[in-house]
Amino acid sequence: MSPAPRVKICCIASRGEARLAMDAGAAALGLVSAMPSGPGEVPEDAIAAIAASVPPPVATFLLTSKLDGAEIAAQQRRCGTNTLQLVDAVPPGTHVALRAALPGIALVQVVHVTGPEALEEALAVAAEVDALLLDSGDPRAAVKSLGGTGRTHDWEVSARIVEQAPVPVFLAGGLTPENVARAVDRVRPFGVDVCTGVRTDGALDPAKLERFVAAAAGG
After folding, report:
1. How would you classify the pairing of strands 131-135 and 106-112?
2. φ, ψ for residue 30 (rounded to 5)?
3. pLDDT digits over 133-191, tens only?
4. Can you tell me the distance from the alpha carbon of 75 to that of 5, in angstroms, rounded to the nearest whole number?
5. Residues 66, 84: Cα–Cα separation, whole Å
């Protein structure tokens, strides 16, 4: 029997939400910096304050849409998270530069599953990062959509990525307490990631959170 996936709660907006997520069993928290679209964005000083309040071993993910390695490294230093989540495809060489600039900081690359070509994209970048995160955005849209869409994608493609990738894979995109068990059963990800699916009127909902974590674990 496969171990239960790690649960990452994204779009954390305050230290109170961070505590609520950790109390529910979250292994990782997502902190959203400036984005071209989507929910959950908080100022960098708030991200820094939240990240500083989170004890090990809970991971703190800084979601960044920046593309320049030096700018990304500077942002991570300002925010103090232990993980970088790159929500857009970065230029060649950026991951290597970030490794050199930020020793000890984990790198997670988002791949938006817009079609079968996502498999090739994921495998091409996997060796350069610590983990992949599969989401349902559309980087090719006129206004880039880089997460928080509330939409699912083709889990068959995601399952093939999990089967072939040499690194852990998180599954995101439209997950809810109602569908996360099916997603885990089909994709077998290392972790699951949720933002809108555990919120009511924008606020983290304790009941939805509890149901999501239980369903992800097969309860």
Report:
1. parallel
2. -105, 130
3. 998 766 565 445 555 556 676 899 999 999 999 999 999 988 999 999 999 999 999 99
4. 29
5. 11
Cα angle at 145 between 108 and 183, to 5 degrees?
60
Tell which residue, 161, 166, 141, 41, has the closest CA to residue 88. Answer: 141
Segment 98-116, tens digit of pLDDT: 999 999 999 999 999 988 9
Burial of 109 per CB tally in 10 Å (0-12, 13-18, 19+): buried
Length of the chain: 219
Q: 57 preceded by cis ω (within 30°)?
A: yes
Please give the torsion angle defined by the CA atoms of residues 200, 202, 208 and 212, in that order, rounded to the nearest 10 degrees.
140
Which residues is 145 bridged to in the sheet? 138
CATH number of 6-216: 3.20.20.70
What does the alpha-carbon distance between residue 23 and residue 101 come to, in Å, rounded to a whole number? 33
Q: Which residues pair with 84 in a beta bridge?
A: 62, 107
- How far apart CA 52 and CA 181 sit, in angstroms, is 32
Neighbours of 55 (CB within 10 A): 6
Helix (H) or strand (E) holding 30: strand 28-32
